[in-house]
Amino acid sequence: MQSKDHWEQVYTTKSSSGVSWFQDHAQQSVEFVRQAGVTRDASIIDVGGGASTLVDDLLNEGYARVAVLDLSESALATSQSRLGQRAAAVSWLVGDITRVELPRHAYDVWHDRAVFHFLTSQREREAYLQAVLRAVKPGGHVIVATFAEDGPEKCSGLPVMRYSAQGLHAQFGASFTLLQQEGEEHRTPSGTVQKFIYCLCRKEFS
C-alpha cells in the first residue's frame, strides 16, 4: 500500500482543487448512491474520501450518516475546513483500509473512487475485500470506481491497476452481484481526460 507520508505530502504541497482527481461535484458517485435505493438515514462510508467533495454532495442530498476514511489527516482536515460547522455531522476516520478493522456490518453503502486501483498486489486486494465483507451489511451496496482499461497507468506518481467492469467485479467474486456499470471521462484540472469505470454491486452473503 502507498505510504501515509506520500499522501500527507500531496495534500500539504498541493491545493485540493489542483490534484488530478478533483471533482467540483461527484455526480456519478451520487447517482449510484441514488440507484442503490437506500434511505436518507443509511450508513455510508467513503473510503479514501480525503478531500473529495462527495461528502458535501451527500450532505446536500440529505444523507445523515456519512463516514469518510483516508490515510491522510491533512486531506480530511481540508474537507473539515471546507464543510465548516457541517463537519460535525460526519464521522472522520484515519487509517489504511487494508489494515484498519471497521465495525462488522456497519455500512449500507461502501464507496471508493480513490483506493482500489492503487492496490497492485493480490495481498492488498484480498485485505481490502475482507474489509468490505466485514463492514458492509448483507444486502448492502458497494460502489467502486477505478481507472478503466484505457485509463492512465500511473496516478500521483504511483503505479495503478486498470479494469474493465467485468474484471473489477471479478475481483470481488460471487458474494457480490453486479447491478450497474458506467464509464466516465474525467477531465483533470490541467485538462487531461482520464477514463474511469464505475461498478455498483450488492453484497449477497454475510
Question: Which key terms come to mind for this protein?
Answer:
6 helices; alpha/beta; 206 residues; seven-stranded mixed β-sheet; Rossmann fold
Secondary-structure map with pairings?
Blueprint: H1 4-13, H2 27-36, E1 43-47, H3 54-61, E2 65-70, H4 73-83, E3 90-94, E4 107-112, H5 122-135, E5 136-147, E6 154-155, E7 158-159, H6 165-172, E8 176-187, E9 193-203
Parallel strand pairs: 1-2, 1-4, 2-3, 4-5
Antiparallel strand pairs: 5-9, 6-7, 8-9
Helix pairs in contact: 1-4
How many strands?
Answer: 9
Top CATH class: Alpha Beta
In whole angstroms, the N-to-C terminal distance is 26 Å
Indicate the overall shape: globular
For CATH, the homologous superfamily is named as Vaccinia Virus protein VP39
| Domain module tally | 1
Largest sheet geometry: 7 strands, mixed
For the largest sheet, list the strands in their spatial order: 3-2-1-4-5-9-8
Give the C-alpha Rg: 16 Å
What class would the helix/strand composition place it in?
A: alpha/beta
CATH topology descriptor: Rossmann fold
User: What would you say the CATH architecture is?
Assistant: 3-Layer(aba) Sandwich
Total helices: the number is 6
Mean pLDDT: 90
State the order of secondary-structure elements, H for helix, E for strand.
HHEHEHEEHEEEHEE
Helix fraction by DSSP (H/I, runs of at least 4): 25-40%
Query: Hey, roughly how much beta strand do the residues contain?
Result: 25-35%
Low-pLDDT residue intervals, each spanning 5 or more residues: none
